[in-house]
Specification:
Blueprint: H1 2-14, H2 22-33, E1 48-52, E2 57-64, E3 70-79, H3 86-97, E4 109-115, H4 126-130, E5 138-144, H5 153-162, E6 167-172, E7 182-186, E8 193-194, E9 197-198, E10 205-206, E11 212-217, E12 220-226, E13 249-254, E14 257-261, H6 267-276, H7 280-287, E15 292-294, H8 307-313, E16 318-321, H9 336-348, E17 356-360, E18 370-374, E19 378-380, E20 395-398
Parallel strand pairs: 3-4, 4-5, 5-6, 9-10, 14-15, 15-16, 16-19
Antiparallel strand pairs: 1-2, 1-20, 2-3, 6-7, 7-8, 10-11, 11-12, 12-13, 13-14, 17-18
Helix pairs in contact: 6-7
């Protein structure tokens, strides 16, 4: 009996005790203190809100429409930032998403989920972040490029368990050479492809300018302009089986303003939008001088943000890059050349901002990233360190007129 007790005691002592990372403890303490009170607003207040979440090397964008719908665009990371733990990253993301503006215990519903493409740094934290919620999170409509099986079996299973609406595999790549199509495919044994509804017959529908409308409210529309672009119109250095090129590109129009979300779109995707799409002439009018642009592919100069595209979109308010402070040395993301490209566009247009640092790679993967002082509204998620419940340049607030 004594020998048995000794074995049990030794086994118990040998078990590893989970120690909470110091950065998680610090974050929890800061959360209890709250922020400066600037992050106000609720899901039903009629305003438009968006937040770009720092995921290190990754992407996560959450929107709240004037009609109270919550839209989540990606949620993933392949590299934490500046020595931060993975546990910190997930807890930080959770508290960015679960606040009065977006998700809450009273309404833990993601009305629309957009998965731009099947690179893991855009989807692999979704399930883990949602599991931090003490309750069940549901997902309504889901839109993604390429088949869902290309993402992960874990994510696919979570989606099936959480979904209350329809999952749509979106193809929006019809070009002037009659390649591609504008179709939607539901998950199911028949895998039937559907044409979009006529506008007004319910989402998703084809609007007069060729976009795939996935949300319509009196003061807000959300439209997919590209998804599943396959043709290599430009040598875009897309090494991931064309996944980046296939990214969902989404245009949000609200109160007469525009927010363009680019995923990891490449030069070929940009070329499709500007010249190759059968709707290119109308697309160019829609994309000209957007208010805020989400810079494509974490600020890559080898794949995205061609001078022609930057000059076309020429944002009037901000350019936001999803990238870490240290960034990804394997790819040199973000590139200083892209930061400068948008900076120069703002200078040309006479748009200035308070001086701030943006971390980037001067020579791609050759040298370490470093900070550059910028005096125009170009920001990266890793270069801004928002305090809990506090507004930052990564937040968008567009107030309902009147």
């Amino acid at each position: 009996m004594a020998r048995k007790r000794k074995i049990v005691e030794e086994t118990t002592a040998s078990k590893k005790v989970k120690v909470e990372p110091a950065d998680v403890t610090d974050l929890k303490q800061r959360l209890t203190l709250g922020g400066d009170g600037s992050l106000t607003g609720t899901r039903d207040d009629g305003n438009f809100y968006a937040r770009f979440v720092n995921m290190g090397q990754g992407d996560c964008i959450v929107l709240k429409t004037p009609g109270g719908k919550v839209v989540l665009v990606d949620c993933g990371s392949s590299r934490t930032d500046d020595g931060l733990s993975d546990a910190y990253l997930k807890l930080f993301a959770y508290h960015n998403l679960f606040c009065d503006r977006f998700l809450s215990a009273d309404y833990p519903q993601i009305d629309i989920l957009i998965l731009t493409h099947c690179d893991k740094d855009h989807f692999n934290k979704l399930k883990e972040v949602m599991k931090l919620h003490d309750g069940y999170v549901t997902v309504g409509e889901i839109y993604h490029s390429r088949e869902l099986s290309k993402y992960s079996s874990t994510l696919s299973k979570w989606i099936q368990q959480s979904q209350t609406g329809t999952e749509w595999w979106v193809t929006c790549n019809k070009d002037t050479d009659d390649n591609g199509s504008t179709t939607l495919q539901r998950r199911g044994p028949s895998d039937t492809k559907y044409q979009p509804h006529p506008l007004g017959a319910g989402p998703p529908s084809l609007d007069p300018e060729g976009g795939l409308r996935i949300l319509t409210e009196p003061n807000c529309t959300i439209t997919i302009l590209a998804s599943g672009v396959e043709e290599k119109y430009v040598a875009d250095d897309d090494t991931n089986d064309g996944n980046n090129r296939a990214s969902v590109v989404t245009l949000v129009e609200v109160f007469g303003r525009k927010l363009l979300l680019c995923g990891d779109a490449t030069w070929s995707t940009e070329e499709y939008l500007m010249t190759k799409s059968i709707w290119a002439k109308k697309y160019k009018k829609r994309l000209k001088n957007v208010n805020i642009v989400h810079v494509a592919h974490h600020g890559s100069v080898n794949t995205s943000s061609s001078p022609e595209f930057v000059q076309l979109v020429a944002p009037t308010e901000r350019a936001l890059i999803s990238s870490g402070k240290v960034g990804d040395p394997g790819y040199g993301l973000p590139s200083r050349a892209v930061v400068q490209r948008y900076h120069n566009q703002f200078v040309t247009d006479g748009k200035a901002a308070s001086a701030h640092d943006v971390w980037s790679y001067p020579n791609g993967i050759v040298t370490p990233s470093s900070a550059e002082n910028i005096t125009t509204p170009v920001y990266s998620t890793g270069s801004v360190v928002p305090q809990p419940l506090t507004l930052s340049p990564l937040d968008i607030t567009w107030v309902a007129p009147g």
